[in-house]
Amino acid sequence: MVTTKIDDIKSALKAEEYDTSTRGHRHTAAARALGEGVYRILRHKSKGKKAHTHLIYKLDFPPKDEKQEPQESLNVEREGSFLIQIKNPDQHGAGPSQFRGLQSRRKAVFPAHLQGQFGQLRYSPTNPPDFLNYEGCELPLISASDDIEEELGLELKADVEADPSCSDLLEMFGETAPVDALLRGTWV
Hints:
Layout: H1 6-13, E1 16-20, E2 24-28, E3 36-44, E4 52-61, H2 69-73, E5 79-87, H3 112-115, E6 123-125, E7 141-145, H4 148-152, H5 168-173, H6 180-183
Antiparallel strand pairs: 1-2, 3-4, 4-5, 5-6, 5-7
């Protein structure tokens, strides 16, 4: 989903009940916030290598002194770095073992100035991040490190102290979804 409307996101996160002809009455639980923090997408060039982009993040919530059960069970570190690239919607995998991506009708349609950045390449760095504004944009995330300072030589500062009254997620979605995983680091 690509949207700037909070109500669209709230609707997508809500619990849902519905009936099916084959399985009867069904219930989908509301989404739960796993963490909140800061992130950056940055361009990086290592010595002798091509420029690439990283998605880096650092969690503010749940606080460090709280349990981390949901985060640990889903292998979400307190901070991390991923290489992030954009898949060229006009290029396809070369063989049966190659990732083919979304079906044609669901693929991103980028404007010419963004599509032109791919040339004949299958993937491009996420530079500019405008690529992410288009529904159907496919982006592989490749785990790089869980120590941003060691890997990239910078420290990502938290936006807030771990005070629930400062949580943007809580303010926007608190009435929509359970928050125990976010604030106390426990499953509901």
